[in-house]
């Protein structure tokens, strides 16, 4: 296995999936704070109260009824409220990351911990202090922080009161938040990600019934335009604040394959690559909309509102690094009968050559080598794999051990694929495995969809001590890092 000497091995988490402390020390609310547990295999829902007093459940990514207020039902369990309580365990958790030998820790700052509603004049000092303490702790162990500014967590106030990302003023609120934290942590953080999996909605569009697509596309593509502008402005600002700063875009790197060699299937896979990945990648890496953007807007009947100097703003905010998550490939076909849906996607077909995880995600290390080559060939800037892993339930044995050979096997094969991609010529500089400590699943709200090297004693209903235990994969990853993947 060949990895560069200073390769960043590490792990990744997101604020609302680990921190807990959802309403203390000044933190404002976000969407997941009104998302009650959906239970095993049910997708999560948000709770709102209508002006009539009636409580309604809105599916994630659904439309909130007019006049509805965020509602927390005291009789229900909200998994993100306490999560694994990283807020109070960060010292212990970072010590465990250090014990594994982490060189990098990808985490996110919760916007609503700094600006509870997103619009205040002054930042919340308790929030600033919390992250300063986390960064100081990482520094103690020489672990480089990689900080995501937005991991699906816009302050709820902006979402419900001002129109969220549809409103151009959200750009300024976000840039101000970024400026405050980038200035505050100038001496502690050098690697930043602006928006996590910014491209998700373009994939999700295809899952909607035909009748809803036009409206959803109009909103998604306009909101995305505002996020691209926000990202570009933050990139420019980051360089002004500290020329050492390196800023990355972050894309959900689902690799599209054609199910067959039928030309329409091949074209469909190419279209998915363009719409799902290159649309967002091109804007952030090349600083302009790709040649196929107009055709895409036409496909969905979208009228995009842009202002005169938007193009110049985008061009000035090109990122330094391309980062992405990789969990699976997807198989596309125009043959409707073969479309069964897979993983989080309700479209696409099962790939007969792959094994699937308990949550239906196709395990495909070769797809990682493929997409790394594809992306690097197009962009030729340093790449980071900032999420990858197997979500699977584990068994805690009476003696405190957790035997997870399936996770070791999954990760090993993906590390081999990265090594091949490096040999292919890809400039890959980091790998931060997802959910390095068990956390609340973003897609399902479950705890049992575990990704960690560290087991956390907590179940889907909130029972458990939250005590941490080292899994077998913990020792495996420790050896891998110590030998720079020569031994694993
Ligand atoms: C990505 C998100 C993460 C994470 C991961 C695994 O989409 O960036 O927040 O949770 O997927 O997904 P899940 O939690 O649904 O298993």
Short description:
The chain has 488 residues and is α/β, with parallel strands linked by helices.
**CATH level 1 name:** Alpha Beta
Radius of gyration: 21 Å
Poorly predicted parts: none
Which molecules are bound in this entry? 6-O-phosphono-beta-D-galactopyranose
CATH topology name: TIM Barrel
Bin the helical content: 25-40%
Q: Care to count the β-strands?
A: 18
The dominant shape is: globular
Write up what this structure looks like.
The chain has helices at 15-18, 79-82, 86-100, 111-114, 125-140, 156-162, 169-184, 200-205, 210-241, 263-286, 293-300, 310-316, 365-379, 405-424, 472-482, and strands at residues 8-12, 35-36, 45-49, 55-59, 69-70, 104-108, 144-150, 191-195, 246-252, 255-258, 321-325, 329-332, 355-356, 362-363, 383-387, 428-434, 454-456, 468-470. With 488 residues, it is of the alpha/beta class. An eight-stranded parallel beta barrel has the order 1-6-7-8-9-11-15-16, surrounded by five helices. Strands 2, 3, 4 and 5 form a four-stranded antiparallel β-sheet that branches. The radius of gyration is 21 Å and the shape is globular.
Q: Which features would summarize this protein structure in a list?
A:
single chain; 488 residues; alpha/beta; TIM Barrel; 8-stranded parallel barrel; 4-stranded antiparallel sheet; globular; binds 6-O-phosphono-beta-D-galactopyranose; GH; GH_1_N_CS; hydrolase; Glyco_hydro_1
Task: Please give the structural blueprint.
Elements: E1 8-12, H1 15-18, E2 35-36, E3 45-49, E4 55-59, E5 69-70, H2 79-82, H3 86-100, E6 104-108, H4 111-114, H5 125-140, E7 144-150, H6 156-162, H7 169-184, E8 191-195, H8 200-205, H9 210-241, E9 246-252, E10 255-258, H10 263-286, H11 293-300, H12 310-316, E11 321-325, E12 329-332, E13 355-356, E14 362-363, H13 365-379, E15 383-387, H14 405-424, E16 428-434, E17 454-456, E18 468-470, H15 472-482
Parallel strand pairs: 1-6, 1-16, 6-7, 7-8, 8-9, 9-11, 10-12, 11-15, 15-16
Antiparallel strand pairs: 2-3, 3-4, 3-5, 13-14, 17-18
6-O-phosphono-beta-D-galactopyranose binds next to loops.
